[in-house]
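Posted in: Structural Biology > Protein-Ligand Complexes

Title: Requesting predicted complex, zinc ion in pocket

I'd be grateful if someone could produce the 3D structure tokens for the following input. Sequence and ligand are given below.
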Amino acid sequence: MTGPLVFPGEEVAVEEEYVAAEGTFAENGIIYASQIGELELDDEEYVARVRSHNPPNILEVGDIVYAVVADIRNTMSTADVVGKAGVDRTLGGETYATIHVSKISQGYTDDVSKELRKGDYIRARVTAVKPALQLTTKDDRLGVIRSFCSTCKTQMERKGNGLFCPECKYSCPRKLAADYGNVKIQ
Ligand SMILES: [Zn+2]
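-- Reply #1 --
Done. Output follows.
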């Protein structure tokens, strides 16, 4: 349901028929566009909107994102969000995120370092954007999708519910995504 492209200041509707909503403003009974975008006259809600033509790629609650674990602390991990799943565009806005220890795995965990390590690539869901960006990996599909050995930099292999370095021959626990090792990193 997309309408014609309109420009700021262009008359798009009258207040007798519609309520001015996003991307519009009303003056003396006339509704005008306040931004460039597609005009949408909603005849069910009686609302006039102008939807931004090229909205900035800002993260919203519920978005699935890819991130790199930056730091591990007592009760949380920090991560740099590098992209939004399915969106091949640079992110605008905040990309520094935190993952609280209670939001990492389905089971109880009190030690972040048993779930995530610095440098891990993770898939996560956005749970808050204000006042700070927060993520969760509490889902089968979420968690670590790629990891490299901190000693020899070899890509770690999945072993049970954890990871194994084929060079150093050691294993360690991790909150893995169900498809660990099969993910094409964008
Ligand atoms: Zn190794």
